[in-house]
Amino acid sequence: MQSALRDDALTTTATGVAVRIGLPWIRSLPLACVQDLVLTLDGEPVSEPQLVLGDRVIPADRAGAEQTWWFAQDRLVVATDRVLRPGIHDVEVTFRLLIPYLLAGPGGGPLVLPVRLSGHLDLDGPTVPSVSLDVA
């Protein structure tokens, strides 16, 4: 999961900041498999994180209604209107990742993995070369 939150993941946007996260799984999954996403910046949870999907912006808690896919090499853009000062910031993204094709537990429901990605990231720091696209 080390590459799921790269050093260049935290960037300034026109209205605040965005964090680009990689899929911490070995295969592409429907975006609907992302549940209960929480973005925390400098120890403070963001009240209403949003997902930027191409030219659309949706509340993160609406990911379950999406028909798009999160491809293994691409980045999911989580945005907020919170403005940060330049420099290093503590970033944490947590969510539950449903794996629909793996059954777990006595009821035989799908496997659900808790995911926690965290790092000390430099706002608008040096870009890491990549072939990743943003989930659209």
Under CATH, the topology can be stated as Immunoglobulin-like
Please write the CATH class name.
Answer: Mainly Beta
As laid out across the biggest beta sheet, the strand order is 1-2-9-6-7
**What percentage of the residues does DSSP assign to strands (E)?**
over 45%
- What is the structural class? mainly beta
Radius of gyration: 15 Å
Low-pLDDT ranges: none
Biggest sheet features: 5 strands, antiparallel
Compute the separation of the termini in Å.
Answer: 22 Å
Order of helices and strands: EEEEEEEEEEE
Describe, in plain words, how this protein is organized in 3D.
The protein has 136 residues and is an all-beta fold. It has a single domain (2-122), classed as Sandwich (Immunoglobulin-like). The protein contains no helices and 11 strands. The protein has strands at 10-12, 17-22, 29-30, 34-41, 44-45, 50-53, 56-59, 69-70, 75-80, 88-104, 109-122. The strands form 3 sheets. It has a 5-stranded antiparallel beta sheet with strand order 1-2-9-6-7, with no helix packed on it. Strands 5-4-10-11 form a 4-stranded antiparallel beta sheet, with no helix packed on it. Strands 3-8 form a two-stranded antiparallel ribbon. The chain is globular.
